Amino acid sequence: MRRTTALLALLAALVGQASAVSVSPQLTLDTEMKWDQQQGRYVDSDVAARDGYYYQVKGPAVAVDSAGTVLVAWEEWSENGNVVGKIGLRTPSGSAAYVTPESGHVDFAPALVSYGHGKFLLAVTEVPQDNLATQDYGELLVYNVSVSGDQISMDSQPVQVDGNAAYPHMVYLGSDNDGNEYVAIVYEKWNGGSGNVVLQVLKIYTNGNITPVLGQPLVIAEGVCKDYVKDGVHYFGHARPVASVYQQGGSKYLVVVLTDYSQASPNVTSWGFYGEWKGCKVKAYVVDLPADLSTIGELNQEDVHEVQGSLSTSDNTNECPWVCDNVVVYRVGSLWGGMSGDTTIPDINAALIVNSGDGNWTFSSDTTIYRRIYTQTGPTVAKVYTDNGTSYYLSVFADNSGGFGRERLAGVLFRVKDGKIQVIAQYDLTGFGSGYYYYCPALATVNSEYKNAELVVACYKGDSGSRGHSIGDAVILTVGIGDPVDEFMSSAAELLNNLTGTMDVVNNAIFNSYSGLKKKVSDLEKKANELIQTAQELKHTVENLEGRVKKLEQKLERRKVAISPMAVLAAILTLAAYRRYSR
Predict the structure, then answer these.
(1) Measured between alpha carbons, how far is 297 from 241 in angstroms, rounded to an integer?
(2) Lowest-pLDDT range, 83-97, 117-131, 237-251?
C-alpha cells in the first residue's frame, strides 16, 4: 500500500501543471431549442435530424477549405411540427442558408467536401416524402457551393449523379495538368431489397461545370445494404460508406470503409426497434488511383481490393466505421450494448489498413482506444498533425456512460508509430448535459500545425426526454490540441485523480472488510466458548451417571441378583423420571 501511494505521488510530481485540451463554447447553427417550464421539456421550432431510433440518422457534415474556412451542413427536418426536410448551410460567423428540396420531397444525409479556396461541393439524397417509410433512398444530387467571407451562394440547379441512391460521402482527389479538379463520391446504390456501395468520380472543370467521369459507377461492395421487412415494417441497414485518400510512397489509394448488413438482422424487442442490428460487420476496400487523374475514367473492377482479415466483434457485431488515411475507427458491439442483452457494452477500436504486398491489403494493429461507452452512434476520426513521420489522430464519438439520457461527446488522441496505434489522451469535450444529449459527431481539421492544432466538431444536440431524437439542434465547437507530451501528462493527471479516488475506495473497502471480519471472528470465538461450556456440562452429567451406575452394580452384586445391562438402563431411567416428577 505504501509503495502504491509513493508511485501515485511520483506520478503527481511528473504531471505538474500540464495543460488540458481546449474546447470553445458551443455555437448553435439553427434556432436554439429552449426549455419550456410549463411543459417541463425542451421545445424547438426548427428540428435538426430525423428520429434516430427508426432511421440510421447521419450527423452533420463539416468541411474546411485551403484557407481554413469552415462550412457545416445539417438536416433541418421540421419547422413548427411540419416536415420540411431541407439542408442548412452555415459558416461559424455567418448566417444560415438553405437548400430547399423539390415540392413534396425531402433532402437528408448531407455530405461536404472542399476542392479549393472558398469552393465546396454539397451532396444530398432527395426522396419523395410519402416514400420515406418504404424507400429510404432516392436521387443523389450535388450542388456547387461558394463561400466568400460569410456569404454562401450555390447553383440553383444541382447535378443529378444517380438514382436509387443514399448516404453519400465525398473526398477530394486532386487536379490534373489542365487545372480541373476531381472528387470521389461513394454512396449506396439500391435495387429493391438490397443495395451495393459504389464509386463515382466527379470532374469539376475550371468554369465550374461538374460531370461524372465513370460511364457506370464502380462497384465497391455488393449486397451490403439491406431492407429487412417484418410485419409490414421496413428496417433499413445502411452501409453508409466513408472514404479517404491514402498516400504510400509515390502511390495514391482510395480507402473505403462501410458496414455490411447482408447477414444482419434488426433487433426488434418488446420496446420496438431502436436502430440496433446484430450480425453486421465492418469491411474495407482499397482502390488504386492513377498518378494522372485525367485518366481516372479508366478505373475498373481490377483496381478494387477487399481488405483481408477480421476486426474485433462483440456478440458477432461491429459497425459504423470512419476512416482517415489508412486508419479506421469503429464501434465494437451492438448499438445499445448491455441494454439490449449484449454481453458487453460497446468499445471504440482503431485499426490500420496495411499493404501486405502483391496488391493485397490487411487489417493490422486492431486496438481498443476507449472502453464501455454505451453509445448510440459511431465514431469519426481526423488527422491532427504529423511530427517526424509520426501521425496523430483524434477520434470523437458519443458516450452515454453517464446514464440514460446523459450523452456527451468524448475524444481520444492517439498516434501511429512503428506500425502500432498508441493512445495519448482521452477527453471529455462537452460534459454530460442536463436534459439533453450529444450524438452523431462530424470532425474536420482546421489547422494541423504541430503542437498547435485546431479541429472543428459538428454534432446534433437532442432532447433526452420522452420525445427522443424528435427535437434538437445542430451545434459546432472547436477543439485545440497542443504538445502531445502535455496532452499525455494532462490525461495522466486525470488518471491520477481517478486512481486516487479508486485508492480511497479500496482503502475504505479494506477497512470495512477488516472490521466486518474482526466482528465475525469475535462472534465465532463467543460461540466456541459457549460450545466448550456446554461440552463441559455434558461431561459432568455423564460422569454423574457413570457413578450412579457403579453404585447400582455394587448393590446388585451384594444381593447376587443377575440382571442384564438393558434392565440396569431401564432402572436408571425409571429412577430419574421418578425423581423428576416427584418434586
Answers:
(1) 21
(2) 83-97
**Alpha carbon distance 91, 65 (integer Å):** 12
Helices (H), 434-564: 484-559
Would you say 43 and 33 are in contact if contact means Cβ atoms under 8 Å apart?
yes
Percent of the chain's residues with pLDDT above 70: 73
Distance separating alpha carbons of residues 44 and 36, to the nearest angstrom:
10
Whether residue 226 contacts residue 294, with contact meaning beta carbons closer than 8 Å, is answered with no
Closest by Cα among 172, 51, 166 to 120: 172
**pLDDT digits 0-9 by tens, 179-205:** 999 999 999 999 989 999 999 999 999
3-state secondary structure at position 301: helix
- Whose cell is 423428576? That residue is 580
Is residue 1's pLDDT more than 80? no
* Predicted TM-score of the model (pTM): 0.80
Non-local (6+) Cβ contacts of 141 within 8 A are 107, 123, 124, 125, 126, 158, 159, 160, 161
Q: Which residues contact 123 (CB under 8 A, 6 or more apart)?
A: 110, 111, 112, 140, 141, 142, 143, 161, 168, 170, 185, 187
Whole-angstrom distance, CA of residue 373 vs CA of residue 93:
33
Whole-Å CA distances, 201 to 109, 162, 193, 304: 19, 12, 26, 14
Handedness of CA 472, 478, 484, 490 (dihedral sign): negative
Q: Is the pLDDT of residue 502 over 80?
A: no
- Pull the grid cell for residue 384: 491532427
Residue 227 burial (CB count, 10 A): 19
C-alpha cell belonging to residue 149: 467571407
Q: What pLDDT does residue 55 have?
A: 41
As a whole number, mean pLDDT of residues 242-262 equals 96
* 410 within 8 A of 432, measured Cβ to Cβ: no
